Amino acid sequence: MRIKRIFLGLGSNIGDRKGNILRAVRMIGDKVKIEKMGGIYISKAVGFEDQPDFYNTAISGFTDLSPEELFFFLKEIEKKVGRIERFRWGPREIDIDILFYGNEIIEKKELTVPHPRLHERDFVLKPLIDIDPDFVHPVFNKSLRDIYENLKERSVIGKIL
User: Fold this and answer.
1) What is the CA radius of gyration of the chain?
2) pLDDT value at position 93?
3) Is the Cβ–Cβ distance between 6 and 115 less than 8 Å?
4) What is the C-alpha to C-alpha distance for residues 22 and 77, in angstroms, rounded to an integer?
């Protein structure tokens, strides 16, 4: 397996939001050589809005895990941090998404990469831009900075770290 550069998005809005994210990042480091972490931003919930604000960040790193192995590894970390499955877009102790896996485009039942809605979400794009504003989205063939600049709706309230 070749080593791939990956980008992951992390979010939390239940319990110790910052602690949940930092704990998950430490665990991710067991199988991903973490390169950079973007800022941690606070944002309004999207989808189901009647819930606490989220803390969100992104990390980049390198792994030799396949996309599927990475997906299941991240799901195990979510369980260890204490995630309880509730309902779509509901409150979460931790949520970890594969945003990019190299420049690959993956469309499977359980896994779509690049993340299908990241181009619509400033709370994903802002920490990604902190890491690599010139990274080119393999589907839209535009830099993260260009995608962010053309966003219509924004939910980020501020930056906490």
Assistant:
1) 15
2) 92
3) no
4) 12
DSSP state of 21: H
Give per-residue burial for 7-18: e unless 16+ CB within 10 Å, then b.
bbbbbbbbeebe
Q: Which helix (H) or strand (E) holds 160?
A: none
3-class DSSP assignment, residue 88: coil
Query: What is the tens place of the pLDDT at every residue in 3-57?
Result: 999 999 999 999 999 999 999 999 999 999 999 999 999 998 877 777 899 999 9
**Known catalytic residues?**
83, 92, 95, 97
Tokens of 128: 């990604």
Short-list 43, 34, 64, 52, CA closest to 120: 43
Distance CA 121, CA 95 (A): 15
Instruction: Give residue 155's pLDDT band: very low, low, confident or very high (50, 70, 90).
Output: confident
Burial class (CB in 10 A: 0-12, 13-18, 19+), 112: middle
Question: How many whole angstroms from its chain centre is CA 126?
Answer: 11
Q: Name the H helices within the chain.
A: 17-28, 67-81, 122-131, 144-149
Directed axis angle between helix 17-28 and helix 67-81, to 10°? Answer: 140
